[in-house]
């Protein structure tokens, strides 16, 4: 079941890569605008991947495990780049905000308000973050799942391998939000014309990538689906940077939990 779910998820990722690369290459001139506006997150991802490569080399993993990790990092980098350009291009054809805060700084809140979106404030930001964490923890407590042996082994790695894992967890917040919320969700909403359906489908596909982490199967997927719905709504209202920040904070919090208690 786990292998089949991961295979379906990987097929979705390949389809997303092919579609986003087609759009990105057709609109390559827009890359300059994206590079200018989204420079901080691009730099963060590039540095994370370079350092991750370095730590993987120093960690002395087995050849097969090392090649798998390197291959997946390269795949993620191209997926991120194409989805960033394609998401920006396709988003311009909708009413969805792109990078209001990276582009305008704190004035991005006023920009969103003028366009009729709900007012952004730090108070609302932390309320939403609390809602994400409270809901995730409630699902965990209700089902009381056990962490699988494979997941346990990942978090028990030591030295440079663990540093590489930490970087992957941090960069995942940017890469996943770019791929799923910024590109896939935008495309689905543009074609289906129903935001709620686009958010649900995107969240379901994103949740599939987290299968097999706990027993009973499905608990982690439900947890991720719940978070995905909230992030999907935030993407439509406040742009992708707020999604990335919420996702990043959540990853840091839950990674600390796993490292301390697993």
Fold topology:
Elements: H1 2-26, H2 31-37, H3 39-58, H4 63-91, H5 100-104, H6 108-114, H7 122-143, E1 146-147, H8 149-155, H9 160-192, H10 195-208, E2 214-215, H11 219-238, H12 240-261
Antiparallel strand pairs: 1-2
* Rough outline: globular
- Structurally, the number of domains stands at 1
Using DSSP, what is the number of strands?
2
| Number of helical segments with 4 or more residues | 12
Percent helix, as a range, is over 70%
Summarize the structure.
The chain is mainly α and 262 residues long. The protein contains 12 helices and 2 strands.
List keywords for this structure.
two-stranded antiparallel ribbon, single chain, 12 helices, globular, mainly alpha, 262 residues
Descriptive account of the structure:
The structure is a single chain. By secondary structure, this protein is an all-alpha fold. It has one domain. Helix content is 81%, strand content 2%. It contains twelve helices and two strands; from the N terminus they run H-H-H-H-H-H-H-E-H-H-H-E-H-H. The chain has helices at residues 2-26, 31-37, 39-58, 63-91, 100-104, 108-114, 122-143, 149-155, 160-192, 195-208, 219-238, 240-261, and strands spanning 146-147, 214-215. It has a two-stranded antiparallel sheet. The longest helix is centred in the last third of the chain and has 33 residues, at 160-192. The radius of gyration is 18 Å and the shape is globular. The two termini are 24 Å apart.
